[in-house]
Design a protein that fits this description.
7 helices
């Protein structure tokens, strides 16, 4: 009888062991994804193009432009070309810049004519038969510089400030003020170049950190404004950018 009971108890024990082995182990919860860190990719200042080439920098950190080193009549002529661009393109104040530009041509007719003759003498002495083409290349180079679309808003405000000062002084004082006026008119462009260089630096850091090799494009419905039409007598832009080979001293 004892042997019979021992054999009778074995099957339930075997079944219990079998059921324990068939039990499904509970899976660990999946690892959550890393949190999304919001990032903002740097964009060019003033809605500028993402692939602009900046001018070279001088030893003092400023950017080299067609106005570099201009003095005397050369500086005055560059001021006139800059204000010519403003008269054609600065429409946010209506006709204020254009009207003041025409006033400048009347008030300062004598020093402006003298500056024109001095520039022609420089180019005739350097280029002889080709002096007209060389002079027109200078006009187009300087004109295109001051017509850079991303800088127009700040440039127009500066132009209005400068031309107001110019029209309030005597013609005898104009030549001495020309280098200062030229530096003021160029200041928005120097500031833009510095801001664009900072954008390129921040963009490089952003790409290095987030591993994004992308090209920044502006909105489809936002295009940079076209530069104003060139003044009469100048060849149509663009011409290759090059610094004019002129004397940096007063003619």
């Amino acid at each position: 009888m004892r042997a019979f009971r021992r054999l009778f108890l074995l099957p339930p024990l075997a079944c219990a062991l079998a059921l324990a082995g068939c039990a499904v182990k509970e899976k660990a919860p999946p690892t959550p994804p890393p949190p999304v860190v919001p990032t903002i990719m740097p964009t060019p200042p003033n809605s500028a193009a993402p692939d602009m080439d900046l001018p070279d920098q001088a030893a003092d950190g400023s950017y080299i432009t067609p106005n570099r080193g201009m003095r005397g009549e050369q500086a005055l002529w560059h001021v006139r070309m800059a204000l010519n661009v403003a008269a054609l393109s600065c429409q946010q104040w209506g006709d204020r810049v254009r009207v003041q530009y025409n006033q400048m041509l009347r008030i300062h007719a004598a020093p402006l004519a003298h500056a024109n003759n001095a520039i022609e003498a420089i180019y005739f002495g350097r280029n002889q038969a080709n002096f007209v083409a060389a002079r027109e290349q200078l006009n187009t180079t300087v004109y295109n510089f001051f017509a850079l679309p991303p800088v127009q808003k700040a440039f127009c405000q500066k132009s209005l400030d400068v031309i107001t000062i110019v029209n309030g002084m005597t013609s005898d004082a104009l030549l001495g003020y020309a280098p200062t006026a030229l530096a003021e008119l160029e200041k928005p462009f120097q500031e833009f170049y510095a801001a664009y260089a900072d954008y390129l630096r921040r963009l490089a850091e952003w790409r290095k950190r987030f591993g994004a090799q992308v090209m920044v494009l502006g909105p489809d419905d936002e295009e940079p404004p076209a530069p104003p039409a060139a003044p009469a007598g100048s060849p149509p832009p663009p011409l290759p950018f090059s610094l004019p080979s002129t004397s940096t001293g007063q003619p």
